[in-house]
Task: structure prediction
Amino acid sequence: MQNSAEVSVIIINYGTADLTIKAVNSVLERDHGGRHVDVHLVDNASPGDDAHQLAEAAKSPLWTKHVTTYLETTNHGFGRGNNLVIERLAAQTAPPQKIMLLNPDATLDNDAIDVLAKAMDENPQIGFAGAAIAKPDTGPVTAAFRFPSITSELIRTLGLNVIAKQFEHTAVALPPNLGTQQVDWVSGAAVMMRMEAIQSVGFFDPAYFLYYEEVDLMRRAGQNGWQSWHIAEAKVLHAEGAATGVGQSERKRRPDYWYQSWAHYFFKSYGPARAALLSVSMLGAAGLQSLKSILSGRPSKLPKSFGSDFTRTAVRPLLTGRSPLS
Result:
């Protein structure tokens, strides 16, 4: 099969068919500066009638012409779900030059695809170009980041503002109103990726189910000389957390796969010994934050059940010298 699209947009759905349809339509209703853009929609074995809703939407003329739907019987997660499409596209005789990942709970707010593609055309070193992201009700949110580090993780877990201010230069999240510039990595909710850059590192690490997979991908690509840029002129609206159930609330209990992905990332990035030492140190930092919370009468900033969940899913595997995803 030959693909003549310059940009292929991939959207991974799980349980948000109504939002996903809006996301697809936000792509189809724009002309993208005359670029040929197609959409690849993966339903990750959603519960309920998502597959039926998407199949019905796919009967419309625009969808029939521009959208390829993959109704999966297994929930592959984010990275593997994208790999499913990217690997097929890469194997075509005329694969797309660029891949655009768009969350199912996100919509284009301007001609973001054209803006991102132009930035990549003008700078052949850009492997990943991320859009500026805003929540519909509250405005801009962070869409560009520094790589997580041992320092950033300990400070975040300790939760002391006076210390965090002294180490602002290590904070993972960059300001929401950041201008166009090179960064360590950008949000996977709205990012354009050069096919050549993705192929150079062997696509997403399939060990991840959800979270940290795009951080890992851009870290590996960066080691190969590819740059990641935040392009402020590209605008996307994102109802954060609607698709995953995990937003920015610190107190909400995190799923096991969040901690497992965290541990896998640090295991790969820093090695078994330092990842294990970091995980134990974070338990100590979490204990100090909990003690401070008790003494001050203020609620902890840690996710609910952090100590037990983190110990079970991350610390114990790392202390045995392995990643929980290996």
